[in-house]
Amino acid sequence: MGDQMDQTNNQSGTPEINRVPLMIVLISGAFVAILNQTLLATALPHIMADLELDANTAQWLQSVFMLVNGIMIPITAFLIERFTTRRLFLTALITFAAGTLVCALAPNFAMLMVGRILQAAAAGIIMPLMQTILFLIFPIEKRGSAMGMFGLVIAFAPAIGPTLSGWLVEHYPWRSLFYVILPIVIIDIFVAYFILKNITKQTFPKVDVLSIILSSFGFGGLLYGFSTAGNSGWLSLQVAIAMIVGAVSLTWFILRQMKLKQPILEFRVFKNSIFTLTTILGMVVFMAMIGGAVVLPLLMQNMLGFSAFESGLMLLPGAVVMGIMNPITGRIFDRYGAKWLAIIGLSIVTVTTFMFTNLDENTTFAYLATVNAVRMFGIAMVMMPVTTAGLNQLPAHLIPHGTAMNNTMRQVAGAVGTALLVTVMTNSAIPEQGVHGFIHGVNVSFIVAGVFAVIALILAFFIKGSRSEIKQSA
């Protein structure tokens, strides 16, 4: 039926009529999934007070989301090939709505965790599925613009999250966060039911239970290890066990995928050198971005005496800049390719990251907001264009695996980046010097982030440059 509709709309040669409502459905689904990831950051103190939790326990509401999300994403390539687009997307949205309702009504911490797990499992499916659909419905020369629209959501949602939750928890109970998300998801379910067509191809791969278990322990172990290392320290027993279990399971998982006729996750996508390069670049940039989004609010609230709402507000100009820039860089990419966008963008990221290495007690709100906004301008020039350039290299049947791999690596990079920068910040702090000593730790963590940015800048010179080159190799 979806094919017939496409053909009727396609007589003029462009299925535009179909794409616009489809994009709206997909983007609103992705928006709530990402918004939800950052929404709790500023609300944690209120949840801790209400449910009588300590900081380490409450942090699990954030960590478990990232963990389950990271476990689900690698499995989505298999799910996309197993189920129809409609069924998979609607199931994910309904699961997300159920999780949101459980969180809103949760009487205790255990139920709140159950709700977060449901939300995370659904979000882990929504993101790669959405990217796969975009790549299948847009021709290669328009994918940059489509991914730019997707990037707009990725940029706006995480920044609106802390600001919105900061404002809501100052005026209403913390449960209001979930009641704000719920109607958006329910509307999206109804609209998706009538609009969404089956786009992805079903190849009905066999269920390899061992692969799913190994994938969960592999990615889950590493994500858990990295996300708890920030609090517990790298040498603690639980971090060491998680890392070892994760590394062994992941190695076994990769070796098994190489032997299977229908692997759950196709690691052969890395045989394409440009895909591998752009994935590494995307990871490094994501580490720089997510680290900044974690470290700067800590600096503002714990060391400079700003409120949760103000620290959220400081991140907002950067998000607005990134949101506006993403569709523009998408169009530039469609015309010129990713190489020079990435080089210029990473130069900006490098300079602005080092501008965060000389902070002190007198650093102003305006300085932090301005430098962060320019930094996000640079990140917008890199993030979506390099992802699109990498995925453009893959044939259609490998795109679900490419998007799943890309999202998985970004999750791992986010966990690693956060853990690494928070660990560096706490270990480099000099408590005897008071606030000045703690800010020293922040400065050192941005020196580490700056080194990442320099590495990424060097790698960017190896991207294939012009559109013609990309087309020839595609």
What is the fold-level CATH name, i.e. the topology of the largest domain? Growth Hormone, Chain: A
Radius of gyration (Å): 21 Å
How would the global form be characterised?
A: globular
Q: Helix proportion of residues, in percent?
A: over 70%
Reading the helices and strands in chain order gives HHHHHHHHHHHHHHHHH
Task: Write down the overall mean pLDDT.
Answer: 84
CATH superfamily of the largest domain: MFS general substrate transporter like domains
- Secondary structural class: mainly alpha
* Count of distinct structural domains: 3
* Quantity of strands, as a count: 0
Question: Which band does the percent of strand residues land in?
Answer: under 5%
What is the CATH architecture assignment of the largest domain? Up-down Bundle
* Oligomeric status: single chain
Q: Biggest sheet, in brief?
A: none
Termini separation (Å)?
30 Å
Count of individual helical segments: 17
Class of the largest domain, according to the CATH hierarchy?
Answer: Mainly Alpha
Which residues sit in consecutive blocks of at least 5 with pLDDT less than 50?
A: 1-17, 466-474
Keywords: Cell membrane, Membrane, Transmembrane, Transmembrane helix, Transport
Organism: Virgibacillus halodenitrificans (Bacillus halodenitrificans)
Protein name: DHA2 family efflux MFS transporter permease subunit
InterPro entries: EmrB-like, MFS, MFS_dom, MFS_trans_sf
